[in-house]
Amino acid sequence: xxxxxxxxxxxxxxxxxxxxxxxxxxxxxxxxxxxxxxxxxxxxxxxxxxxxxxxxxxxxxxxxxxxxxxxxxxxxxxxxxxxxxxxxxxxxxxxxxxxxxxxxxxxxxxxxxxxxxxxxxxxxxxxxxxxxxxxxxxxxxxxxxxxxxxxxxxxxxxxxxxxxxxxxxxxxxxxxxxxxxxxxxxxx
Length: 188
What we know:
Shape: elongated
Largest sheet: 3 strands, antiparallel
Strand order of the largest sheet: 2-3-4
Order of helices and strands: HEHEEEEHHHHH
Oligomer: single chain
Structural class: alpha+beta
Distance between the termini: 43 Å
Number of strands: 5
Number of helices: 7
Helix content: 55-70%
């Protein structure tokens, strides 16, 4: 805390490394920016001391956790940055931004395809779950259960329709990706 006090007073940048999921309650006034106007400047209460707050003070926290999940109360007080991105992932993000600026129609189609594909996969999963539920509830001969037989027949038709749509979507996506590739040099 002494280092923090000096950093706040003299406007230095402080780095607190290897934090866990739970933060020390003593950091609460800093994270909550609980500054109080005092004459021409600000003060902040840290522990039992009131310290002059210098506006050039910056506070950075780092963690070695690969995918930390902080509480909503903590998340609203800090800005979370994930530095675990790969160069390829970053290039793909930049490609998406460039294409969205240059050819918004392509990026919109790409987004629509992703959404439609996710919906189709969810529909297939729901059908599977329904069939499994009906099978588990079925008693006796499953071939005599009209509800189950109808569900399996309907699911086969829906599944074939979805597979056809996915083939068309895959072909469309390949065309969109080829058009997007012409912008890769700009994204890199």
